[in-house]
Amino acid sequence: MPLDFSAAYASVVKNLLTGDMDVAAQTLSAVPNWQAPADSQYIPRNVPMPMQVTVFRRDHFTCRYCGRRTVLPPVLRLLSIALKEVFPYHPHGKMSECHLAFWRDLASCDHLVPVARFGASEEHNLVTACYMCNSMKQNWTVEELGWRVREISSHETWDGLSSSFPMLLEVSAARFEQARIPYFRDWLRTIQSQCR
Predict the structure, then answer these.
(1) How confident is the prediction along the chain (196 residues), in pLDDT tens digits per residue?
(2) 194: part of which helix (H) or strand (E)?
(3) Between the chain's N and C termini, which has fewer beta carbons within 10 Å?
(4) What Cα–Cα distance (Å) separates residue 178 from each residue in 93, 113, 143, 190, 192?
(5) Cβ atoms 116, 36 nearer than 8 A
């Protein structure tokens, strides 16, 4: 269940209406706030590809929030290159110009403790999330949203099409110039290095 501060707000309003500013301020200051201090250090948001693949494989490419099977990001991008008329992609994820799959089915890493709240990009703080759940969660904790983190099923074998990616890239690169960019080669190196 999401954390509920409605009683605190009601008390603050009551105290403001009766002119008791000090009690109102004291009550409102007790409502948790996670805004970063002005002198806090910048923490990078990007999760390195090798860590992403480690997390995706650990979680069997399954969203730990909604349970949806997700797909390795470059696989969806290659599908768009080959079939852009029916599977459009926008480099900035513009929903009006992107196939819904890039929000619904794309694998992403989510920080359990958000980066904005000083969460680290380390395996223990990362879970696989479909991009939709990741977008909804933003800078909230699971507890604040009333969500739960699903257990990893030992029987799950879904690999997010990562095992098909090297061959798909080879075929796509032979046919489409857009498939020959560093983005795809970087993913390929990462996938291959983790298979050794």
Answers:
(1) 556 778 878 887 888 888 888 887 888 777 766 555 555 565 556 899 999 999 999 999 999 999 999 999 999 999 999 999 999 999 888 888 999 999 999 999 999 999 988 899 999 999 999 999 999 999 999 999 999 999 998 888 999 999 999 999 999 999 999 999 999 999 999 999 986 6
(2) helix 182-194
(3) C
(4) 17, 36, 42, 20, 21
(5) yes
Residue 142 near residue 148 (C-beta atoms within 8 A): yes
Q: Which amino acid is at 104?
A: R
pLDDT of the residue at 36? 55
Other beta carbons within 10 angstroms of residue 91's beta carbon come to 8
Q: CA-to-CA distance for 114 and 45, rounded, in angstroms?
A: 9
Separation of first and last alpha carbons in the chain:
43
What gap in Å lies between CA 179 and CA 170, rounded to an integer?
Answer: 9
Cα separation, 119 vs 160, whole angstroms: 26
> What's the pTM?
0.80
Within 10 A of 79 (CB to CB), how many other CB atoms are there? 19
Residue 56 and residue 160 in contact, taking contact as beta carbons nearer than 8 Å: yes
